Amino acid sequence: MVNGIERPLDLLNQSKGKEILVQLKSDKQLVGTLLAFDIHINIVLDNAKEMQNNEVKRNIGLTFLRGDTIVFISPASTALKEEK
Prior knowledge:
This protein is an alpha+beta fold. It has 2 helices and 5 strands; from the N terminus they run H-E-E-E-E-E-H. It starts with 7 loop residues before the first helix and ends with a helix.
């Protein structure tokens, strides 16, 4: 067990209310505040922004993402630091 994470959804639970990075199958990346998710990894993001080359391409705001469109989810602070 690392950082209190025993199951995959534990990381999402710890990330609620925090900024996350979401990579979509369409090669788009979104960063936003995780508000909610379900067992299918459908997620709701607030203040969502589409990112391109570590820069904001456009602001989307409140959005719902279907779990089957997501490749991976990462705490944004960690992911964005490593890319720079």
